Amino acid sequence: MTKPLITHLRHVAIAAPDLDRQLAFYRDQWGLTHTDSDTGVHFLAAEGSPEQYVLRLRKADAKRLDLVAFGAARAEDVDALAADLAGRGVQLVHEPRKLDTPGGGYGFRFFDGDGRVVEVSSDVTTRGFRSIDQRESIPVRLSHFVVNSDNPERTVAWYVEYLGFKLSDTLCLGARGDFMWFLRCNDWHHSFAVSRGPHVAVNHISFEMRGVDEYLRGTGRLLRDGIQKVWGPGRHKAGDNTFSYFMDKAGNCVEYTTELETVDWDHHHPSVYDVTTPDHIDQWGTANLMNEFVAKQMHNDPDRGVFVAPPL
Which of residues 65, 90, 122 is at a domain's end? Predict the structure, then answer.
């Protein structure tokens, strides 16, 4: 099966009223590098990633997702995807054009089936990056982005049909049925996932660490700093990645992870993992229980940016 025109996850942009506390958290505690600021918008990079930035922060009256951005290999692919989506009735936020964000590039924006803003771009200038040192507990790259939907089957079908993502695995909750779907656009087990929730919202933003030692050191540092832990540390079955979830200063859930599985694009067969089997939710058995508290934090507040394009 041909891979999609989308090649990878670039960055996530979020907004909140208390921008100063958000910036301080992601820069001083989470371990991202503040690279640029213009008209009140802040761009943060991961030291091990060639992406100009992996997180964008903006001040807004209400907490919201501004957009999720993916990469494409060529400008021709951006044009082809934009034409295909527009021809099938997808609402574009703007046509393909030169971008004026750090690194420039060429891209367009559109609303997905739930009303999130998605950006696809090519030809973005890469940033100088470095190898993360042993025991250095800062993110290497943006790993994946998970959203909530009150109609997740429809959302998953939308990303598969319109953007070419492929299903890697599914989680179910016993007889209550499926509740999370992991989607890939390359050989990583998932760059995007959809979870069943009471409303459209951010579920969590995940950042890859150098290795298990660095992941645990980062987890411990945040615990010592008094950052609210949601769930972890543990190791998932689907994707085989480690997990430690915390709350940022606006009430979004963010994750440290490492060792996310890579799978063969053509030959990986999706499995359904029942999380009522303890090993399927946490192979190590070290995390606190997945309970109503954890679910509430990951359900988040309703996204105020649905079908509303951000100003920048």
Answer: 122
